[in-house]
Every structure is written in C-alpha cells, then in structure tokens.
Design a protein that fits this description.
By secondary structure, this protein is an all-alpha fold. The protein has 3 helices and no strands. The protein has one domain. Helix 1 runs antiparallel to helix 2. Keywords: Mitochondrion, Transit peptide.
Length: 87
C-alpha cells in the first residue's frame, strides 16, 4: 500500500486560485518575451522571469503571494509599455 495523503498536502481553495493566477502571470510574461527585441533580449527576459518565479516558488503566505502577484502584474504592464514604445 502506498503513502497516504494528509490534509496538509492539499491546497486550500484560496491557495489553488493564487497558484492558478501565478501560473497565468508566468505564461503572460513568456508571451510578452516573444516581442522583446532580439534573441539575446528574449532569452535574458525568460531567464529573469524564471529566476523570479523560482525564487518565490515555495512561498505559502497568502498576503505575500498576493503582493508578489500585484508586483508581477505591474512589472508585466511596464514591460509591455516599454516594448510598445520601441516598436
């Protein structure tokens, strides 16, 4: 018989929703990176995004996660604006 799951191994509904929002934001960053200058700039942006998401991957405090999502959305909007200005 395999190991059993404990109640602490499951995400709460709030955690599940925040996780979904974080993954959505990550994908948005990757989509925007396609328009970021040349190949070098695109790769640099992807590495930066991956590093930031990895750095905060194990954060479980809902307040902190919400703050990070807000900061991430603002950064995404700033990057989009910057890319649009260079076109």
């Amino acid at each position: 018989m395999g190991p059993t799951a404990t109640s602490s191994s499951f995400l709460s509904l709030r955690q599940f929703i925040l996780r979904r929002e974080a993954l959505c934001l990550y994908r948005q960053f990757l989509r925007v990176s396609r328009d970021a200058g040349g190949a070098r700039e695109r790769e640099e942006m992807r590495r930066w995004v991956r590093g930031e998401f990895d750095k905060w991957r194990h954060t479980t405090d809902e307040g902190t996660v919400r703050l990070l999502l807000t900061q991430g959305r603002q950064s995404l909007n700033d990057i989009k604006t910057s890319i649009e200005m260079t076109k």
